Amino acid sequence: xxxxxxxxxxxxxxxxxxxxxxxxxxxxxxxxxxxxxxxxxxxxxxxxxxxxxxxxxxxxxxxxxxxxxxxxxxxxxxxxxxxxxxxxxxxxxxxxxxxxxxxxxxxxxxxxxxxxxxxxxxxxxxxxxxxxxxxxxxxxxxxxxxxxxxxxxxxxxxxxxxxxxxxxxxxxxxxxxxxxxxxxxxxxxxxxxxxxxxxxxxxxxxxxxxxxxxxxxxxxxxxxxxxxxxxxxxxxxxxx
Length: 240
Description:
The protein has 4 helices and 9 strands; from the N terminus they run αββαβββαβαβββ. It is an alpha+beta fold. The strands form 2 sheets. Strands 2, 3, 4, 5, 6 and 8 form a 6-stranded antiparallel β-sheet that branches. The two termini are about 30 Å apart. A hairpin with a 2-residue loop joins strand 4 (about 95-100) and strand 5.
């Protein structure tokens, strides 16, 4: 019963103060809320990071093999319409490889490796590109990341929706307290998120006479979230 009396008195004090105006730094009656929004979009671009490696006794043998297969991978990308500016073939790295047997080290060869980065602006051709890269004897796919070309625009849309959600919550709380929202005092962004589906492809052993064929691909959806905190000034309802 004591708690009920305290709450009732607090509500009465707040109700009497609804018509006061904020002055001298005193905000007066207000409501603090959080607004949230979630937007889902289908990706329209893919960024593929693939790798070509080869180990040989001589450096020239290792790098020569990697160069040939890298050229084949680049041609596979061009064949599906990827522009040269969307293809990166990073520098070849070479390092000696060693094996250990009974505590003794034996030289296995020189390993050459090269990473290829491809930005695919038409994700419908990804199955064809994947088959072409496999047939070019790419060793592995480090990542296949889905994205959207209008990332900034979608983030702004999510933030605006979060602000509208905050105002809607403030209106609901104000109505329940027999008040109205008069103006916004402050709005601040609390968090934002961009969760993109990622498909990882692991290469399987293939005989030299095997050829990969295009397979079905479902890119999923990108999840964009935004959260804001807002403070709204309240006024009492008049004319009642």
